[in-house]
Amino acid sequence: xxxxxxxxxxxxxxxxxxxxxxxxxxxxxxxxxxxxxxxxxxxxxxxxxxxxxxxxxxxxxxxxxxxxxxxxxxxxxxxxxxxxxxxxxxxxxxxxxxxxxxxxxxxxxxxxxxxxxxxxxxxxxxxxxxxxxxxxxxxxxxxxxxxxxxxxxxxxxxxxxxxxxxxxxxxxxxxxxxxxxxxxxxxxxxxxxxxxxxxxxxxxxxxxxxxxxxxxxxxxxxxxxxxxxxxxxxxxxxxxxxxxxxxxxxxxxxxxxxxxxxxxxxxxxxxxxxxxxxxxxxxxxxxxxxxxxxxxxxxxxxxxxxxxxxxxxxxxxxxxxxxxxxxxxxxxxxxxxxxxxxxxxxxxxxxxxxxxxxxxxxxxxxxxxxxxxxxxxxxxxxxx
Length: 384
What we know:
alpha/beta; 8 helices
């Protein structure tokens, strides 16, 4: 072993001095925004009915903030619905699918979930386009006479669609985008998206349990012109007497929301508004760039998504040389015990590796401080 190798090994095994100030790198629920404090949340609405004037006003304000930050056209409706992103996406599937053939795209676990819903629950016999973790299906093969289901940013694989150019303007089917780790981090082309869903717990660092459903005009037309063959539970019903239930998109939620979660989302949205849409994207991009610098400097780290054109800038999934599930579990546990990094193990169904959240609520300095700790944990885990 050379003197340089000895020095490098010694440095790697030495416990770093500086820790990330906020070691929250979970891909959901994600880190709270900088400066967040529960004591800062407005509490006047707590203990009040969500149907009171005050309750409706706060829900509408939350919707208005989302519209402003997403730069959403007036043609698109925004509704707060139950069940987080999963509930929002399944609401869209159950109420709109079946009118025409369906194509489902899957390159990670949540996309596979929509495949299961379409094939086994709704029994629609969908066309399925799959790719392995780290890859993406050939988007030129999508038949847009079909309704098309896809994840804009695959949280569990770190693979995103490169842009919206593959979605034609003259599509016959509807585009259904699970955008839960994409909104507020990418400049989304809303003219290409008929249905989008997300939850506050991702890029905003909000609380779980509530989903957001965005409907473009073509989706509204589908809802008002088509009745599914299957029964719909109450929490999925978006149409009344053949017309869109507009109240859902004006703060009149289908079921009772947590007004505390709503106030938490409002605080995060107001923080995001202070940065603006470009500021949010810039923070995510800077975090992802800082992590890629760490990866480039270490031969034992790599990207699950090797093509940077489809690599996520929010949920970045990394490979670790020689690692299996037990090694990653030990690796992540070492970091957690030192309060250096929380929740960095990859998703259970993904190849063994790390997953580092780089969304806008994370500070770049904390990503930079993570590098030496990854070296330390890797050396400790290898030493047994």
